[in-house]
Specification:
Blueprint lengths: L2 H9 L10 H7 L6 H16 L4 E4 L6 E4 L3 H28 L1 H4 L9
Antiparallel strand pairs: 1-2
């Protein structure tokens, strides 16, 4: 395991109520708040999850951030949050595809017209 992933695991706390904000986690890991470092952090967390570490994401306004999942309820809530992201992304893709039909298929009329 590389050093960044070890540092992330060291600083994450157990339970959603102890979530560490992204900005705090970046600082604790010695990263800046740049888009590049933000991406580095997200990629490391993605790899940790792939390695079977239960890292949750909380969007709770009182305690947003990342945490180590402790309970089935926390796992289900986090999976629901991520599912919501997937659904929203699929709907946005559909809307862009419909709106961009003329760019994607010059000279053709969309079905239903």
């Amino acid at each position: 395991m590389n050093e960044l992933k070890q540092v992330i695991l060291y600083h994450l706390k157990h339970g959603q109520h102890n979530a560490t904000s992204k900005s705090d986690l970046l600082r604790l890991c010695g990263l800046s708040s740049s888009k590049t470092d933000d991406r580095v952090l997200r990629l490391a967390i993605k790899e940790l999850r792939h390695e079977r570490h239960l890292i949750g994401l909380s969007l709770n306004k009182q305690c947003p951030g990342y945490y180590l999942i402790n309970t089935v309820e926390e796992l289900e809530k986090c999976m629901g949050t991520l599912k919501g992201y997937c659904v929203e992304a699929a709907l946005t893709r559909r809307d862009l595809k419909v709106a961009g039909f003329a760019l994607l298929h010059p000279g053709q009329l969309p079905l239903g017209i």
